[in-house]
Write a structure and sequence with these properties.
Layout lengths: L4 H9 L12 H17 L6 E5 L5 H8 L3 E6 L2 H14 L3 E5 L2 H7 L4 E7 L8 H11 E12 L3 H14 L16 H10 L2 E12 L4 E5 L5 E8 L5
Parallel strand pairs: 1-2, 1-4, 2-3, 4-5
Antiparallel strand pairs: 5-8, 6-7, 6-8
Helix pairs in contact: 2-3, 5-6
Length: 234
């Protein structure tokens, strides 16, 4: 299992706040329309089998479902999964949530899904390649995966950690570990090892005044990418 108990506990402790749009996780709500905008620019979601890896309380999962996708969400934080399930009583969406490690899930769902989303997760796990490997295993041939994370450089440290956590306080203090940020070139190497070819990449900017996200050509802080599962050369 590729997990950090400290990270799981961190998000378990925030479980009751997942759907508080003015609470500690409000920035996820603010940037979610932007994440969805990028996803929709690359794929049609209607009637597609989608797996949301690291779904948390279901913010992205619900947005995907509202676009007509058949969504399954998995996460290792049991309290977050329970909150996600409870929120379905308010939205009446048809989403399956499971508290399960991605490796175990992949062994039962090899090449089953059309689309995999894995957003804001890679920087919270000990081994990002473990996640990428099994995301690829779950995808159908020619399937599409989306990953988002933070670039590793001085700008991302100043904006993603110092400004976001300590000055503007738009995310909880201790949310990010700069050492776990991933440069796009590093992520590309990991993706290629598992037959995933980048199709598109975009930065995700954030305006704290309007409390909204936007897509940008600059990928020096937060970025999101789309990749396709290609045939192995082996």
């Amino acid at each position: 299992m590729n997990s950090d108990l400290k990270e799981i506990n961190k998000f378990n402790n925030l479980a009751q706040k997942w759907w508080d749009t003015a609470g500690e996780l409000k920035t996820l709500h603010h940037i979610n329309p932007t994440r969805l905008e990028f996803i929709k620019s690359q794929v049609s979601l209607s009637n597609q089998l989608v797996l949301d890896v690291g779904c948390g309380g279901g913010i992205l999962s619900e947005a995907l479902s509202q676009q007509g996708a058949q969504v399954t969400g998995i996460d290792l934080a049991p309290q977050a999964i329970e909150i996600a399930k409870l929120h379905l009583y308010e939205t009446n969406l048809n989403i399956t949530y499971q508290c399960e490690d991605i490796k175990d899930f992949a062994e039962k769902n090899s090449e089953k899904f059309d689309i995999v989303t894995c957003l804001e997760l890679l920087e919270h796990v000990p081994d990002p390649e473990y996640i990428i490997e099994y995301c690829s295993a779950i995808l159908k041939p020619e399937g599409v995966a989306f990953f988002s994370t933070l670039n590793r450089n001085l700008t991302s440290y100043l904006l993603g950690v110092i400004a976001a956590e300590y000055l503007l306080k738009i995310v909880p203090r201790g949310t990010h570990d700069y050492a776990k940020f991933i440069k796009p070139s590093e992520l590309n190497k990991l993706l290629m090892r598992h037959n995933l070819q980048i199709l598109a990449i975009s930065g995700i900017g954030y305006n704290p005044i309007t409390a909204s996200g936007y897509l940008t050509s600059k990928v020096n802080v937060n970025y999101i990418l789309c990749c396709k599962k290609i045939k192995s050369n082996a």
